[in-house]
Amino acid sequence: MSLDPLLLSRIQFAWVIGWHFLLPAFTVGLASFIAVLEGLHLATGREIYFRISTFWIRIFAVSFAMGVVSGIVMPFQLGTNWSRYSDAVSNVLSPLFAYEALVAFFLEAAFLGVLLFGRNLVPRWAHFFAALMVASGTLASTFWILATNSWMQTPAGYTMVDGRFMPQDWLQIIFSPSFPYRLAHTVDAVYITTGFVVGGVAAYYLLRERFVEEARTTLSMTLWLLTVLVPLQMFLGDQHGLNTLEHQPAKLAAIEAIWTTKSRVPLNLFAIPDEKSETDHYVISIPDLGSLILTHDPNGTVRGLKDFPADQRPPVAIPFFAFRIMVGIGLAMLALVAISWWLRWKGELFDERWFLRLCVLASPLGFIAVLAGWATTEVGRQPWTVYGLLRTADSVTPSLTGVDVALSLAGYSLVYILVFATGIALMLRIVRAGPAAADAEPEDEIESGRPRQPVRALPVGQAGSRT
Amino acid sequence: MTALVFDFVPIWTLILGVGVFLYVLLDGFDLGVGILYGFAPDRDARNLVMNSIAPIWDGNETWLVLGGVALLAAFPLAFAIILPAVYFPLLVMLLSLIFRGVAFEFRYRDAEHRTLWDHGFCYGSMLGAFAQGVVLGAFIEGFEIDGRHFAGSSIDCFTPFTFLTGVALVFGYALLGAGWLILKTEGPLQDWARRLGRFAFIGVLVAIAAVSLWTPLLQPSIASRWFSWPNVALFSPVPIATAVIAYWEWRSLNNRSEAAPFVGAILLFVMSYLGIAISMWPMIVPYKYTLWEAASSESTQAFLAVGTLFLLPVILMYTGWSYWVFRGKVRADIGYH
């Protein structure tokens, strides 16, 4: 049996970053939501914002802790498994990684402590300020890590010296051609992801007629936000697509499973791409629509995969299907938001149970879409780590054996399954307990080992306020 | 590359040196608190012990990320050679840090499996510390290198010496943790921390002596660094000061002083760190590449130095503020839960 350290390292990287990515996808949006709630509470003095915020801070604490520990793993992966990549790109990319830590991580970490534990220790404005700093930190982190990722997709501002990238123009490196599109598309995506989770939880309470006041405020706020963000995402995704067509034509051809260069290409709704015979089977397509969407011109020409040497093409099936999953979810989200406008206009937003059930069902959709989008863009970048310049096969650490990586992958698999399964279960538990449990669940009662159930069953009104 | 206008290597050596030391110090004491946590007498004690670091551990661990990326940024050749060489210790460290990191939340939320997360917190802290010690030992022993790559095997780093440095760091962190707990607690819990602190101190003393004697035997260059004239006179204050600090630390662990044990433990770490720096200077990839040879391009170092020199003081300021918010003895009722 031969274990391939390259393949296993790729699986390991996909595994640890895939799980990690789910958390920022949630916490970036949630941090902003909490900052808004804290700000509203400070400005209006209305108790309800405080209750909603306190509730979401508890979920934030669990997800953020998981995000931190799974995030610490990431920079070390670059050294342990991708040392030749690190050696080649460090002169260009390392300041971007470092600025993420300096600007974002410390800010988040320092103010997180105050946000979680300092409510009674600092003035209210300082607590709001802490929430604001945590939210800013998560956004700064997004900025720098996407600048890094974008440079790997569309490298710029460098020169090659002895097979290594050397910086020439830092502005070009940070603002590489795909960066503005990727940043906008991703930030919108993570806000939408959070929006659907928060909205889904609110709908869940409305269905059960618990915490109705909190749930109504939350659902209404969320759907207003999504009203802006979901249509905006359609536009941003389209712009990002045009950018990919220009800078990463092979990736785009794989996403659309287009083999032959031509104008008036159809849009493949479904197909089974066959890399051996360089064709698609079982195609369901709409004539001319491909060119119209991809080039904004029904006569536009799109390059096919056959234009690229076989060893410079990405795998086709994964980007093709992952992209369709992402877009499909996007359209479903748009439909849900459109329904919400109609119900709001009728004044029945909180009453239609089928709509509330749809909201609950839709709550994990953002995560799936984010992962699908990520798979599209990262698998579509193959066979390169730095697009067109540095091969993934030339990036892996030379000293690793297959057994080494098999062992580490087994370790990451077991630990992540245990930790993430527990984390998700605990967040669901917090959701079931609901906002009122904020005060009905003091530490000593739990710590004394009393059963949780009666605590959870406390009526809403019994939960006092704590400012 | 044209003529050198300004040499950023000393600046980056200092930043990386300070950054890694702050990590060792800050996460050192909270990993140490995690190690001692396993010996806490009852649940109330465990709650207090954990609460003493709950608001700050995340920030402390951030210095590890900074250390990693600063090494990548300033001395990428060292990053690319050393990290593969310590593949398994880093794996163990990362998985341990995951366990202990989530334990803060999970232990409280997941009451049915509290014992599991209690153990995860304690053993995670212990194994994480041990793995870091193995990394340190492997660094001192040096690596098999071919050009710009590590050429040895992933298990080369497991030797008797690295086992010793692993154990040494567990005791060292435990001593820091005890110092922190003495500072943050009172009454019986503080007495308990003092007892464990004395135990850890003896381990530290033995470990420092053993590592100090063993290290020069490993590398002739280290022996001549310390024992050749005039170095022996120049560097003799290091072991002498260490001995004085050790005496003071032992006394303060036995009297009623609350801050001194923590300060003494920190000073012992400063001296050990200094000793290692003296032994290794100017190598960053031991016995192969100097700091200058492993450095990134001048443009890279300059671009990052500008921001770092501005941001680090800001970071220290607001980190200081967050410590200040949670100043004083730890209380049972702190918390957002």
Molecular structure report:
The complex is a heterodimer of chains A (467) and B (337). By secondary structure, chain A is mainly alpha-helical. Helices cover 70% and strands 7% of the residues of chain A. Chain A is built from 16 helices and 8 strands. A two-stranded antiparallel sheet of chain A has the order 1-2. Chain A has a two-stranded antiparallel sheet with strand order 3-6. In chain A, strands 4-5 form a two-stranded antiparallel sheet. The longest helix of chain A is centred in the first third of the chain and has 40 residues, at 5-44. Chain A is globular, with a radius of gyration of 24 Å. The model of chain A is unreliable at 438-467 (pLDDT under 50). With 337 residues, chain B is mostly helical. Chain B has a single domain (9-325), classed as Formate dehydrogenase/DMSO reductase fold (Up-down Bundle). Chain B has 14 helices and 4 strands. Chain B has helices at residues 9-37, 43-51, 57-74, 76-85, 87-109, 114-141, 160-184, 187-218, 220-227, 231-235, 237-254, 260-280, 291-294, 298-325, and strands spanning 145-146, 149-150, 283-285, 289-290. In chain B, the strands form 2 sheets. In chain B, strands 1-2 form a two-stranded antiparallel ribbon. The relative contact order of chain B is 0.14. At the A-B interface, helix 2, helix 3, helix 13 and helix 15 of A face helix 2, helix 3, helix 4, helix 5 and strand 2 of B.
Topology of this structure?
The complex is a heterodimer of chains A (467) and B (337).
Chain A: H1 5-44, H2 47-80, H3 83-117, H4 124-153, E1 158-161, E2 164-167, H5 170-174, H6 179-208, H7 212-247, H8 249-256, E3 262-263, E4 267-274, E5 279-286, H9 289-295, E6 301-302, H10 317-346, H11 353-362, H12 365-381, E7 384-386, E8 390-391, H13 402-433, H14 437-440, H15 443-447, H16 453-456
Antiparallel strand pairs in A: 1-2, 3-6, 4-5, 7-8
Chain B: H1 9-37, H2 43-51, H3 57-74, H4 76-85, H5 87-109, H6 114-141, E1 145-146, E2 149-150, H7 160-184, H8 187-218, H9 220-227, H10 231-235, H11 237-254, H12 260-280, E3 283-285, E4 289-290, H13 291-294, H14 298-325
Antiparallel strand pairs in B: 1-2, 3-4
Helix pairs in contact in B: 1-3, 1-6, 1-7, 3-4, 5-6, 6-7, 7-8, 7-12, 8-9, 8-11, 11-12
